[in-house]
Amino acid sequence: LWLWLVDTDAFHYDLATYSFFACHDSGSSMLLDFEVKSFSRSCAATERDLEPGDVYFSFLKAEQGELLRFDYSAEAWQGAPEDCLGWWRSRIPTKEGGAPKLAPTEVMLNLFVTLADRPDDEEFRYLLGLLLLRRRVLKRDDSFQNDAGREVLLVNCSRRKEVWELLVAEPAADQAQQLQQRMIDLLYGDEVLPNPVPSSVES
Q: What are residue 25's phi and psi, to 5 degrees?
């Protein structure tokens, strides 16, 4: 399964290899190739596997120092906790071959902001930041070197009227599979449906 992060929502696939391409404006680039199987979702309350056509709800939450995703079937859903990073509603496609969809932008932004306070997650935050840059949710304003001599990007989010720092932290080769799987586990899923209320909790 080939998946390229590009400027539009278009995705291209080929068999079972997943590729993540990310680059920033200074010319640094990275291509991570992974061979993965198609993912599945199950209800966190009932442990029932979600099936084609099922509507389900997802939310991200920091729990015991770890960022986790929870999926619930429509019948088991009782609302998202107040301290979650954001929630959304999806439907598993009835036909095979549907392109995986990202979580709503506001959810990804909440995750990006939360990761700023988690030094151990700097590589994951860097890749998430590049994804948001590629999707033009963020715009690069400038860059500088911090006191440790590391490059830091200044990224502007017009929808929140904020400027954030993004530490350049390209992952080592042995981190690639772990980071890729984490990206899928947290942010990728099926067709995103409109929520009856806003899809994120403001951070």
A: -65, -20
